[in-house]
Design a protein that fits this description.
The structure is a homodecamer of 128-residue chains. With 128 residues, chain A is an alpha+beta fold. The first copy, chain A, contains two helices and six strands, in the order E-E-E-E-H-H-E-E. Chain A has a single domain, classed as GTP cyclohydrolase I, C-terminal domain/NADPH-dependent 7-cyano-7-deazaguanine reductase, N-terminal domain (GTP Cyclohydrolase I, domain 2). In chain A, the strands form two sheets. Chain A has a four-stranded antiparallel beta sheet, with helices on one face. Chain A has a two-stranded antiparallel sheet with strand order 1-4.
Chain lengths: 128, 128, 128, 128, 128, 128, 128, 128, 128, 128
């Protein structure tokens, strides 16, 4: 079951701002209406606070396990996107965070959902 | 027969703004002049109001059935585009909504129609 | 013989602004100097006035026949482009209209001609 | 021998502004230093004055013959570009004109030369 | 072991500003959590101070050896990116420096990390 | 040995501003550290002063020989880029000049160096 | 309702063998299990008998109407493919005929079905 | 749990030979060693016996559910491939059947497994 | 009106075998059923007899005029292909000749027709 | 004027068979019917006899001048191809030689001509 506590973090390696992007193209959850599996890609982008301010980065293996915890959840695309944003914001308290999900389609319809937290930092503008 | 009541919605999963895009590349209706089938792709993009404000998202299976209800309708490209915009605005009352249809062509002419409701949100500018 | 009366229109399906693009990649006319056929693609983009204001859209089958009426006309590229703009503006009185012709080339020279009527609407800026 | 009088023009087909682009990918002249042939593409873009103001467009067959008149001329890339600009400005007195030449290369060096007359019109900005 | 002293520099060849980009697509280090190797590409961009002001450029062979010194280090992606930025800023004191790392993925997740020092110079804006 | 005197020039063919780009994809010099050959592409862009003001353009055959004079020089990438800029500015005194070098890579690292003289002219903005 | 009599034919234009390929990328029928529409492309290839032997070719407008007659039929992919083969063989008695259907997918599965009648003629071997 | 009885079949639509290919790009199972999910594409190709001989085709919705039954199975790539072949041969007794699985990779290694039953029919040789 | 006499020929320039291919991507004729224009590309390949044996090649300008003579003919795709083959065989009596037509499509169906005369010569096998 | 004596040769550097290909993408001659220039690419491939047998290779600068000698010749595509084959066979007496010309098109028709001398050697089969 997806849960913020699955997300382990390590201290940000410095005090200056920087930007991180993680892309997982093997995301799967279950449609809450039909019970059929959904497949997609999930992208998380964020800028941690500086180390002095207690800034942290999510550890990759824990992120993988966190994403895998959605495998048998019945959950809408929109809720996956908002839930991941909220859990990661809670775990890292970053300067900025963005979640984009691309879904392979069901019933002939493919979807993209995007949720943001904070303003896109100057270093990343025009990206993603 | 296309009808707003075919569109089922579920509460938006949060209060913060986010953006949704659904693309159906298997849209078909019937030309009101010649009676021949038309084929195209239809894209709907919107940003729901927050959950606190009664914001909702369209449910995908109902969206699929709604799109299928155009299958034997005699209707112009322009009317498909405006009708979908109006039905979805009525069903969701979103902050922003945009419908774009791409038609494969008839008589050697291919067409694109685009209709908007509200202003493109900052998160999506420069997209689509 | 090309003529505004070949263009049939139907009432715009709503009052809100929207944008239409029709592309015909099978346009042909005749060079007035050499008598040889010219081949090209013609793109028409426009935004109709609202239904309340008597706004109309061009009907596709009539547009096809209108384009075919150039088949044996001896006419310059530049005149095709301006004539189509003028005829369609006369037939629809749109908020905005744009005609772009791409010609496959004659004597080793290929050409693009573009003529506008009114200002590009905000919904289409950065397109086309 | 290249000469403005080779360029025949016909009256602009209307009074509203529009934009024309002609591309010849089969341009050849001779290097004045080595005597070897040079090969390239030449693009001319212009916006004629309106018909009422005596605006004219260059006729394509005469443009082809004009370009062919460089075939055995010993002339620098830079002079080709400036000469074509000057001859065409003299022949058409357009609102705006631009000449761009792309040369296939000699001695391992390929070149692009660009010369303008007047300001790029709003309809063409961000193009070419 | 990565260390600023591995980075040898030579005096900047002039006083006017210019911009340098080095890309190494064969970077490898070790995951501090699993002990498995990580593979990626690392890009360094910088603008040195002028020669009069003691500006220097990193020497390429020493940069190669510096990058190779990460081969058996157990280190997070984020720390690689920040460490390289900090070491190179220390070695060169440039006007501007940027490090971007692209990682091939581990556990189905691929990542991009970007860290900056100073403002992007006018000559490079809109690049990279 | 590279030297400004290798660069022969001819008078600019007119008084209006225009822009020239020469690209040599067969540039080679020698690494001053390892003695191994370096291979790359060198691009020079400039806008000459008008003929009345004594403006000149570099002659292509002399440019080829000038580039070939680097063949056995032990010289850093950065110094090639700055040297070419300085020699060409000295030879032509242009309104604007830009040199960009792309190096195929050594030790797994490929590099791009860019040096400017003067402001990019309006005709070329957004290019290159 | 699909039926051989929808297929009109005209006499083969000669006695020598030749090969015809018709591709319709806008085929749609209905899934007999779920009632949802299926979308795909259907390709028909054949070699008619010579005119002297009563050879015929299918007329294109009738072929279009024949394909459209499947629009609201509940029928398996495999049956579409075999039915079209059988109807067309009955209508034309060709030397050779081949039907290939490509289906866009349902439930994440996309399919290709191929049915033949007679031997591939020498002129078409290695094709399709 | 995967099981032949999940596969429903319908009678082959004819007596002549034909070939069917189904591709599912959303296959997932679980690694029996690490417990992590595996992702891949599975392709099944077969030629059913004729209807007179009791030939059958697998029904697509049942095939989807059959593939989904592997979702939480701990099973090797090789066993998935052989199991699907054996189950489908048992369910359909086809003239020919082939299963190919493409796996996205784990630990930097991606894999393809292929298992056959019977001889490739002449119509499909040189394919797949 | 298409006619063999439109095709002018000149003596083959030698006695050894060689192969010629002419491609016209601007072919147009008229559908005999609907009266609408058809657009396509026509390719002619042939190997002339040797000069000693009276071998001839078709002259290009006459071929252009011959193709243009179909412009207002009501004729099936299949008849265009066979007619061109027969006319050109009559005009040139070549060792080998092949005509392939690709049609842009009408009613959503695009077509390819191919007709041969004689055996493909060894020099061209595996081509086209 | 094209002439075998323009082609200078040097002794083949060895006795074992090998294959040479020269491609000139800047070939131009003149149409004997219209007087307009033709543009194309010419490819020559050959295998020289061994040095012991007096085998020779064509010298590149002389080949360039030979090709340039066609610049103002009025000559058919087919004759260019056969003439180059014959001249080069006469100059080199190679084991095998092949000439292929690709012409950019005139009157909307583009052409490829191919002429051979001797059998394609085993090293080159399936090429070109």
């Amino acid at each position: 079951m997806p849960d913020t506590t699955l997300l382990e973090c390590f201290p940000s390696p410095g005090d200056e701002a920087f930007v991180v992007e993680h892309v997982n193209e093997e995301f799967t959850s279950v449609c809450p209406v039909t019970g059929h599996p959904d497949f997609g890609a999930i992208t998380v982008r964020f800028s941690p606070r500086g180390a002095k301010d207690g800034g942290v980065c999510v550890e990759l293996k824990s992120l993988k396990l966190y994403f895998q915890s959605f495998r048998n959840e019945g959950i809408y695309y929109e809720a996956v996107t908002n839930t991941v944003r909220d859990h990661m914001v809670e775990a890292m308290r970053p300067r900025w965070l963005q979640v984009v999900t691309h879904w392979r389609g069901r019933g002939g319809i493919r979807s993209v959902i995007r949720a943001d937290h904070g303003d896109v930092p100057a270093e990343w503008r025009g990206k993603g």
